[in-house]
Structure formats: C-alpha cells, structure tokens
C-alpha cells in the first residue's frame, strides 16, 4: 500500500480527472438508456397488460437510474406517467389518478407536492386494493379481441350444429342410375353402372327401354317393367276385337234382314 501511495504521489488531480471522466460518461449513458424506457410508447399500459404493479416496477427501475445519476426527474416524466395511468379503464382508479394529476398541476389539494416515487407507490396501492375487492376490470384491446374471438367461435359452433341438424332431418334427393340414350354398338344393348347391369329393349315403351331384365331379343309381354302396360295393351286389343266382331254380327244381320 505504501509503495502504491509513493508511486501515485502528486498524481491525485490526474486520477480524479480520469475517475470523473469515466463516471460522467457512465452516468450519461445510464440516463440515456433510462430515458429510452420512459417514452410514451414504452409506457403504454397495454405493454403491461394493464397490470399496474408491472407498470410501476418498470417506471421505478428507470427513474431510480436517473436519480442515481444525479439527473432531475422532470415535469415531462410526471406527464408521461400520469398520461399512461389515465389509460386505465377502471373508473375508480382513473378518478384517483386524475385527482392526483389535477393537484400536481395546480399545486393545490392532494397531489400538490407528490414525488414520482410517491405517485408510483400510490398507484400500486390503489391497484392492489381494487384487486383485493374484486373490483378491478381489465378492458384493454387484447381482452376485447379475445372476447370477440370467443363469441365468433361460439357462433361457428352453433352454426355447425344447425347445419348438422338440418342435414339429419333432410331426406337425400332421389337418385337414378338408369342409363339414357341408345346403346353404342360396342355395348350390345348392355351397360354396367355402379356394378349393376342394364339391358336395352327396342320393343319396350319409350322411357322404359333400359331395364334390368331383358334385351330386345328376349322381350316378352307381361315381363319386367312393361308387364302392366302389356296387360293393358292386351286388354285394349281384346276389347277392340270383341267390339269389331259384335259390329260385324249385329249390323250384318240387320242389313240382311232389311
């Protein structure tokens, strides 16, 4: 130690100058860094999810850095903090902050001589009190978006349930796999649709020529889809033949007798 004192004897002024230069440089950088964290954008309550404890802790940390560097806490700092706290949508808390702000601004009543650290402590105390009483409500934009998203999701679920119920009660439209048009030469009056074979008969009535029982060569009256039509046709032909025979026999006898 004695050796060190001997070596630096007479250099006290130089050492103090070096220390002062380094200290001033450090404090200047510290203040700049702290000020960058105390801007309007950085102090928005949304950045802290409207948690006042997190907000006051952030401000307290950087205000302390400024104070430790012997730099003053300015009116601009107060305005920024008051403005941020007034963003709260909790009515009772907001009213308290506005009363403190009015007192600080006018220099009258409560808040007239409040310091920055006292302001942060008061905001934190009121926040915890309202939380304890279950009277703190968070109404920030994120909460509103989450609420809207929840409503939208609920509507989607209801709409899906409605569609499912409607589909369940709705009978499927009738479908027909019956072929249309005349068969192509390579089909030879036969066509496969969904694993089922259809036949084409030129002797069947139009609209019934595609059937599941026979082709033209196998057409028979009273078979397949045309059974009723064939029966009706036979009955009609038999009635016509009977009427013709009756006319011939009746009118012929009268004519000859006359």
Provide an overview of this structure.
With 258 residues, this protein is mostly helical. The chain folds into 2 domains: 2-138, no CATH class; 185-251, no CATH class. The chain is built from 8 helices and 3 strands. It has helices at residues 2-8, 12-36, 52-68, 75-85, 91-106, 116-132, 141-169, 227-257; strands spanning 190-193, 196-200, 210-211. A 3-stranded antiparallel β-sheet has the order 1-2-3, with no helix packed on it. Strand 1 and strand 2 form a beta hairpin. Helix 5 runs antiparallel to helix 6. The longest helix has 31 residues, at 227-257. It is rod-shaped. Residues 251-258 have low confidence and may be disordered.
Quick gist of this model?
The protein is built from eight helices and three strands; from the N terminus they run H-H-H-H-H-H-H-E-E-E-H. The chain is mainly alpha-helical and 258 residues long.
Q: Helical proportion?
A: 55-70%
* Radius of gyration using CA atoms only: 51 Å
Beta-strand percent range: under 5%
Instruction: Indicate how many domains the architecture comprises.
Output: 2
Question: Helix tally?
Answer: 8
The first-to-last residue Cα distance is: 173 Å
Low-confidence stretches: 251-258
User: What is the averaged pLDDT score?
Assistant: 77
Shape: rod-shaped
Give a quick set of tags describing it.
258 residues, 4% strand, single chain, rod-shaped, disordered C terminus, 2 domains, three-stranded antiparallel beta sheet
């Amino acid at each position: 130690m004695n050796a060190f004192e001997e070596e630096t004897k007479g250099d006290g002024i130089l050492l103090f100058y070096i220390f002062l230069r380094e200290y001033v440089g450090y404090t200047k950088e510290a203040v700049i860094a702290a000020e960058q964290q105390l801007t309007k954008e950085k102090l928005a309550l949304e950045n802290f999810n409207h948690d006042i404890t997190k907000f006051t802790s952030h401000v307290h940390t950087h205000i302390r850095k400024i104070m430790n560097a012997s730099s003053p806490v300015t009116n601009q700092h107060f305005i920024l903090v008051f403005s941020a706290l007034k963003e709260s949508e909790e009515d009772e808390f907001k009213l308290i902050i506005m009363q403190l702000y009015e007192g600080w601004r006018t220099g009258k009543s409560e808040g007239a001589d409040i310091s920055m650290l006292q302001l942060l402590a008061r905001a934190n105390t009121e926040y915890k009190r309202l939380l304890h009483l279950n009277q703190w409500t968070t109404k920030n934009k994120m909460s509103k978006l989450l609420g809207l998203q929840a409503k939208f999701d609920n509507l989607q679920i209801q709409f899906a349930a409605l569609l499912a119920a409607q589909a369940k009660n709705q009978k499927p439209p009738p479908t027909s796999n019956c072929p249309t048009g005349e068969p192509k030469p390579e089909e030879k009056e036969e066509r496969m649709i969904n694993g089922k074979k259809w036949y084409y008969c030129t002797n069947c009535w139009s609209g019934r020529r595609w059937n599941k029982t026979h082709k033209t060569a196998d057409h028979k009256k009273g078979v397949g889809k045309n059974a009723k039509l064939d029966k009706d046709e036979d009955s009609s032909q038999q009635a016509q033949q009977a009427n013709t025979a009756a006319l011939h026999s009746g009118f012929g006898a009268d004519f000859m007798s006359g």
